[in-house]
Specification:
- The structure is a single chain.
- By secondary structure, this protein is mainly alpha-helical.
- It has 2 domains: about 1-40; about 40-148, no CATH class.
- Helix content is about 55%, strand content about 5%.
- It has helices at about 1-35, 45-65, 90-95, 105-115, 125-135; strands spanning about 80-85, 120-125.
- The chain has a two-stranded antiparallel ribbon.
- The longest helix has about 35 residues, at about 1-35.
Amino acid sequence: MGRDLEKKRAYQREYNKTYFQVHKEEIYAYKRAYDQTHPRKDKAAHYEYLKTRRRRIKREVFEAYGGCCCLCCGENHIEFLSIDHIEGNGAAHRRSLGKQYGPGARFYSWLKREGYPPGFRVLCMNCNAALGWFGYCPHSTLSKNSAT
């Protein structure tokens, strides 16, 4: 069943891309007309809602991967934390997902939607960058492929 679902999703994605390319001008014209006739009453409130939603999803993802704390140095300010690909294949993984799943909120939403798959951990940006650039983190003996 899982394979059929993957095929169905892949087909639907391809269909949507093709449909959008063929009908791009119509879609944009409809969106412009809708936006003119249905203006947002409070843009600031909408953006605040989106910001709150992104923070909530980020916190949920971090909690699912061990809590809001860097596994290497113990940093606990959520603003400094990120998700690390344990195997060091982050760029290749994001490319395989497509452009709609870049870094940040969309990637966190993907992790949540996929049921928090294994192979990820919470690290601060410094530890994550050190592992990516040097293969080790100066805070500890944490290396690229260690699971803890």
